[in-house]
Amino acid sequence: MMTNDTQNPLLAVRDLRTYFHTFSGTVKAVNGVSFEIGEGEVMGLVGESGGGKSVVGFSVLGLIDEPGKIEGGEILLDGQDLVTAGEDRLREVRGREISMVFQDPMTSLNPLHTVGRQMDEVLRLHTKLDADARHQACVEMLESVGISQAAERLKAFPHQFSGGMRQRVVIAIALLARPRLIIADEPTTALDVTIQSQILKLMRQQIADKGASMILITHDLAVVSEMADHITVLYCGNVVERGKTRDLIETPSHPYTRGLIDSIPDTAHRHDRLMQIPGSVPDIRNLPKGCNFRDRCPRAQALCAQQEPVLTKQHATLWAACHYPLKPGETA
Amino acid sequence: MFGYLLKRLIQMTLVLWVVSVIVFLMMSFTGDPVFMVVPIDATDSEIAQARRLLGLDQSPLVQYWRFLTSLVQGDFGQSYVFRQPAMTLILERLPATVEMVLVAMVMAVAVAIPLGVYAGANPEGRLSRTIMAGSLLGISLPGFWVGMVLIYLFAVHWGVFPSSGRGDTAELFGLRISLLTWDGWHHIILPAVTLSLGTMAILLRMTRAGMMEVGRQDFMKFARAKGATRHDVLYKHGLKNALIPVVTIFGLQLGDLIAFATITETIFSWPGMGKLLIDSIYRADRPVIVVYLMLVALIFVVINFLVDLVYTLIDPRISLK
């Protein structure tokens, strides 16, 4: 049931379940998510706020804290499971094999350490380079993400950089140890619109240069449609649809994906008003039986309340979890 | 930088001046020192003469002016009791107090920081709860009681530490220091432990609160995402960010212990300044009390200044302005 045809995926997530055990009940933030990424691929992970996107990213790096816990599933990096791996192995993976870019560049850097020291830390942890070689690598990396006078800027503290510049530093840190996979969690959401496209362009170019793969976590389908090779759409901790970017954007088969696409402002279309998905995400602590999306779905019927739909093959490269999927050309 | 130092110097002088006014007023309201210097059967004319000699027949303003000018010149007068310069008396005893306080502060920090970091990083753990309960004891148990219990257990019952006195001292730059001799260390442990418990508990709780706050910050998770060890994340990234309030309290406690180690010094017969202060108050030995209070004010002002300097070393966003 895989959408992409890679024989040996770099990362394969199988039936991942990450739950949070809170006072008011168990939150099944990620509840049976599967996907694969091949070498050099960019995958978009899309959904509304609270859909479990970030939790997937943190789960892959083993950074789920109490009261959260990975309750089941596999996260296979080159076929080796990270869920059952020890903390030592995970530390080798973090930064070296898989690195992460956070949403808010204003808070992801330590305010009390120089930018140089924070970059150097990655190289000290993951390479055997001597101090001079590390310094040289930091200068080159900082220059390659578009920060001039890099040698000087290494001595500066984060508060001496603007938000966009800080995100460049964060990206530089993420790329420094040449990881094979970068998880970017809403990397442009906290930035000015004018800076957003610069940063996205930078990430796309850097990832292509280094032959790395990327999981781009975002709520913004417009962003992923430009960047991603394929897209996985999450709703309430479940994969509702996935497929190649072009198929999924042009002819989505799940009504939720359709809704997301229709709510992108588009000057080429003649909508008088922006479309929206009615209602809001249900309380994830006690999800209704059947399809989680049925209360907001224009196509819902009696069956949707009784039986949870499973991912099934649709047209083109798409897989969707829907009893009444859209056919190409059909509108919701 | 120079401008800042000048500004701080002026501020510090101002504070000390205000303290001198308060000290002078307090002294004027607390009894008549003439009766401390004259014999018990002195005649009225002898009393009047002594009063004139001490300058106590002048108006308060003149008295204050003379008080201030002699302070500025470093003349703090003679102790009525010991017939020695008051400053000399205090400075003889200052090293004993300071070394006891320093040992106490080092103990407090050495215990409080690691336990505070641990309790802040694992707030739900059983060990953390035990640490926090212990720290509550450290805050609430009075020093005199702890001192007596320690004397009973370690001096009387087990006989491993002496119960009083300072032991052998060695001379360094003209100062008598206990920490240079084995016997001195033997004597300093119990009073230093007694003195450190309260500060230890407060610093521990401050560290824990700071670490819990910092633990929620994105950069801590980002540091872990880089592959840093748990120890590095907590100590290199977390602790430094939690340190500002801890340093503040550290400075205040340091001054507080130097100034008011009186009770501990009394219990352990430690020949420090605190004991001298108590004796001087009993005997209304005004010059000694004045020097003591002025010295304590100076110590607080200097420590506060140093704490502000330390802030700038910790956080580059804080600048000397």
From TrEMBL, chain A:
Which GO terms fall under molecular function for this chain's record? ATP binding; ATP hydrolysis activity
Name where it mostly resides: membrane
Topological type in the membrane: Peripheral membrane protein
Q: Where in the cell is it found?
A: Cell inner membrane
Name the domain of life this protein comes from. Answer: Bacteria
Database matches in SMART domains: AAA
Give every ABC transporter domain span. Answer: 11-261
Sorted UniProt keywords: ATP-binding, Cell membrane, Membrane, Nucleotide-binding, Transport
Task: Output the Pfam families linked to this UniProt entry.
Answer: ABC_tran (PF00005), oligo_HPY (PF08352)
From the UniProt record, give one GO term of the biological process aspect: transmembrane transport
What cellular-component terms does GO give this entry?
plasma membrane
Similarity field? Belongs to the ABC transporter superfamily.
Q: What is this protein called?
A: Oligopeptide/dipeptide ABC transporter, ATP-binding protein, C-terminal domain-containing protein
Q: Which organism is it from?
A: Litoreibacter albidus
Automatic annotation (TrEMBL), chain B:
Question: Which Pfam families does the record match to this protein?
Answer: BPD_transp_1, BPD_transp_1_N
**Superkingdom of this entry's organism?**
Bacteria
> Primary place of residence?
membrane
> Where are the membrane-spanning stretches?
12-29, 100-121, 133-155, 184-204, 242-268, 288-314
Annotated keywords: Cell membrane, Membrane, Transmembrane, Transmembrane helix, Transport
Q: Which InterPro entries match?
A: BPD_transp_1_N, MetI-like, MetI-like_sf
Q: Does the keyword Membrane apply?
A: yes
The record's subcellular locations are:
Cell membrane
Question: How is it placed in the membrane, per its record?
Answer: Multi-pass membrane protein
All copies of domain ABC transmembrane type-1, residue ranges = 94-311
Cleavable signal peptide: none
GO biological process per UniProt: transmembrane transport
Q: Does the keyword Acyltransferase apply?
A: no
Write down any Gene Ontology CC term. plasma membrane
| Family (UniProt) | Belongs to the binding-protein-dependent transport system permease family.
Name this polypeptide is given: Peptide/nickel transport system permease protein
Q: Which organism is it from?
A: Litoreibacter albidus
